[in-house]
Amino acid sequence: MMEDLHLSTGHELKVLMRDGLESAKILDALYARIDVLDSKIGAFALVNRKAHRRPGGGTLDGIPVLVKDNICVKGEDTTCSSKILKGFKPPYDATVVRRLKEEGAVLIGKANMDEFAFGSSCETSCYGPTRNPWDLERIPGGSSGGSAAAVASDETIMALGSDTGGSIRQPAALCGVVGLKPTYGRVSRYGLIAFASSLDQIGPITKDVEDAALLLGVIAGYDEMDSTSVDIPVPDYATSLASDVKGLRVGVPKEYFVKGIDREVEAAVKRSINVFKDLGALVVDISLPHTEYAVSAYYIIGPAEASSNLARFDGAHYGYRAPDAKNMLDMYVRTRSEGFGREAKRRILLGTYCLSSGYYDAYYLKALKVRTKIKEDFDNAFKFCDIIVTPTSPTPAFRIGEKANDPLAMYLSDIFTIPANLAGLPGISIPCGFTRSGLPIGLQIMAKPFAEETIFRAAYTFERNADIEKRKPKL
Amino acid sequence: MKIDKEIVRRVALLSRLSLAEDEISEYGSQLGAILEYISKLNEIDTRDVPPTSHTLATLKNVYRKDILKPSLKAEEALKNAPSSEGDFFKVPQIIEKR
Asked: Which residues form the domain of A455?
């Protein structure tokens, strides 16, 4: 039915367009949806009303994609949802955006996010919070909360997010959609406004696993503009979408099922592990002994790198500048104090403290050494298993404001997603059920570096065979 | 862990941020709580452990060939500037007049 086009996945629309459906009809359906819903949800930082299909075809020909607001789109506002970048129009496209355009994708707008991707709740945006489509009183997760909420509420077909400590996977879990953080080095970050350069990755947020594979295939690959992108051929991810996990070794780390995890989340994940077992996978108990130190290491490394990356926002070259500065120092200080929000300032202070003379060894260097131990944990574990299955988030979506004044409680909500960033591993979150009150629960699957195909196979098999109710939020 | 106001002020200056008095005490107690949690790392003996600054084991220095390529025109680079003059970014006076 034409009026239900917004409900479709990208691969479904590809088939419909092959049979004559016009791309403009999809856009009309999405614009109508956005007009009705987005004042309630707040998933968009910017709606591109002039989006259109471009000539030339491609893998994503005519398919609307929403891009997170920290990814540069030439000539269109790209602000990291921060006052300090209001009005910034990048003079170039991020490599992922160039690839989207080359493959015919239709860029429908910019997704709301936590300011500079600092957050797990999408509450710190200068545009106001994004709300969870499943319960408008709850957060959608973050920092790619706008991307995940827009996909969950069918305001876009697909989206791009970025993930530094869980910012794709956690909102995907809390909004009941699919979100993949690729291996560090798999996707170019050229044109992604940097948060923590040794952790950031761009990845897809989609309605199903097949779309995630489709979108990753477009954005992955070596790029000479990002010296950390790795020159390994991009496989045809579609061929990894086989419904078969026989003999696959599924590692279950005991450290991810500890006190503090929500009982319904734990039960859903344990049921999911049994699904893999029933489908012929071999479930093995593994140990990742340094898991409990990951959040500590991350909240040194992440803010340290961020404090350095955000030094460029000084009012000189772009973005906001405080008026009537007396001298340079006055311009820097007032621009940054007026332009950055509270969480951004908190992380800059924390990072600057950890890098400052006299504290560098005790904090930053120590965290890098612990990172080595965390990576070794995974290297050892992958001798015994092919994938690792865990909850994505210890709890379902929490209430707006619940953790806003307790940064440490907020930071701990990333406890299960941070290790993959520290170790550079790929990880996906896929829906694995609902709480009794109707909130989505996410299952995380991690694999060895550059083993996205293994993740897709496992996730696709689960999606097809697990008896997870197909629900849409009531909006 | 206690982060006194003097330390917050010093770190704020290094960060090029100015904080109001109430912000100084708020950030001071929040940073203290975070650093207290982070001190958990001292439970791990890392004496002989090398640091991991990134996870790409094979990555060495990356060079490109030294070939001229077109880049942004000055006009485009200046488009987002809060203030500019000619081909330059304009900022407040740096060197004081005698």
From this structure: 2-251+382-465
User: Which band of pLDDT confidence, cut at 50, 70 and 90, is reported for residue A3?
Assistant: low
Mark whether A171 and A70 lie in a shared domain. yes
Report the complex ipTM. Answer: 0.95
Q: Chain-centre distance of CA A405, in angstroms?
A: 23
Specify the CATH number for the domain of residue B37.
Answer: 1.10.20
Contact call for B56 and A185, based on CB within 8 A: yes
* Contacts across the A-B interface (CB distance below 8 Å): 160
Write the pLDDT tens digit of every residue in A33-54.
999 999 999 999 999 999 999 8
Is A359 within the bounds of a domain? yes
**A315 domain-assigned:** yes
Residue B40: how many CB atoms within 10 A of its CB?
A: 14
* Interchain CB distance below 8 Å, B40 and A292: yes
Instruction: Give a yes or no: residue A360 inside a domain.
Output: yes
Domain of B23? 5-43
Using a CB–CB cutoff of 8 Å, tell me whether B69 touches chain A.
no
Model pLDDT for residues A338-353, shown as the tens digit of each residue? 999 999 999 999 999 9
Tell me if B60 is assigned to some domain: no
Domain assignment present for residue B65? The answer is no
Confidence of residue A58 (pLDDT cuts 50, 70, 90): very high
pLDDT band at B62; cut points 50, 70, 90: confident
Rounded Cα distance between A210 and A218, Å, is 13
CATH number at residue A417: 3.90.1300.10
Tell whether B7 lies on the interface with A, counting CB pairs under 8 A.
Answer: yes
Q: CB distance from B46 to chain A under 8 Å?
A: yes
Q: What is the pLDDT of residues A424-457, one digit of tens each?
A: 999 999 999 999 999 999 999 999 999 999 999 9
Among the partner-chain residues B38, B49, B94, the one whose CB lies closest to the CB of A299 is B38
Distance of alpha carbon A336 from alpha carbon A313, whole angstroms: 7
Contact A243, A263 (CB under 8 A): no
- Number of domain units in chain B: 1
Contact A314 B30 (CB under 8 A): no
- Which of B91, B93, B94 to substitute to test the interface with A, most A CBs within 10 Å? B91
Structural domain count, chain A: 2
Tabulate helix, strand, coil % of chain B (nearest 5). Answer: 40, 5, 55
Find chain B residues with C-beta within 8 A of A334's C-beta: 18
Domain membership of residue B50 (yes or no) is: no
- Strand, helix or coil for residue A463: helix
